[in-house]
Amino acid sequence: MEGSRKITRKMDFYNLDAIIAVGYRVNSKKATSFRRWATSILKDFMIKGYAVNQKRLDVLNKTIAIQSRMLASTLNIEEKEVLNVDDVIETANHFRCIDMIIDHAKAALTEKFIKELHLVLKNGTSDSRNDWFAVGDYKKLPNEVGGRDTAFPEEVADKMKALLMEYNAKEAKTFEDILDFHVKFERIHPFQDGNGRVGRLIMFKECLKYNIVPFIIEDNLKMFYYRGLKEWDNEKGYLTDTCLTAQDKYKAYLDYFRIAY
């Protein structure tokens, strides 16, 4: 209502994921300001609302766990669908990782940079408070992914050095080269946790470096993405097509905001 008039207007609604994705694709002063602002807001939110001190964070985690169970029961939904503190922390950390890959987009891919990504991603999470969890360093305990064995902890350093040497020996990386590196990285599974997120951040960075439109694997593509990883040696098309589909969606975002690529 506007005074005595009843007004109906068609409103434009924007997808937050799209806005964030585009904001992190554009390397301009305005986009950089957006990224810094978003990161500072989330960081301030965490500091003031969650991570005042370790004791308060632990109490909050327990409180949220209880409330999550109550809410899940009341709404008849899965408990895992309810937000927890680690989700908030890793979301803010992911913003910082995106800034890192934008700032270092043209730099060579190194072990040091990969470890720094993991350090930033997992910093302040509940995992980081476990003695057996190496934040920003390679795993201490064996792990697996999708029922597949991965490199043993004592093998990781040598395998990562060999992988990076093989990859960096190629002067001009193609889309397939980036995917091939990703598959091999995930099979090594160098970190205790966070390998998928770090691996996909690396793909994003390398796409930027070689002027390839990057992409985000969203939930509706996850099962196809996992199949692509598993079947890479037999059929590269599964993962390639999945990532091209994700790239097409990203291009649609760029087209909508009239950003050349």
Main sheet: strand order? 1-2
Number of helices: 10
SSE class: mainly alpha
Q: Could you estimate the helical fraction of the residues in percent?
A: 55-70%
Shape: globular
Give me the strand/helix succession.
HHHHHEEHHHHH
Mean pLDDT: 81
Contiguous uncertain segments of 5+ residues = 49-53
What portion of the residues fall into strands of 2 or more residues? Answer: under 5%
Number of strands: 2
Report the C-alpha radius of gyration, rounded: 21 Å
What would you note in describing this structure?
This protein has 261 residues and is mainly α. The chain contains ten helices and two strands. The chain has helices spanning 16-23, 29-49, 54-75, 85-103, 111-122, 153-168, 175-188, 195-209, 222-231, 237-256; strands at residues 144-145, 148-149. Strands 1-2 form a two-stranded antiparallel sheet. β1 (144-145) and β2 form a beta hairpin. The N and C termini lie far apart (43 Å).
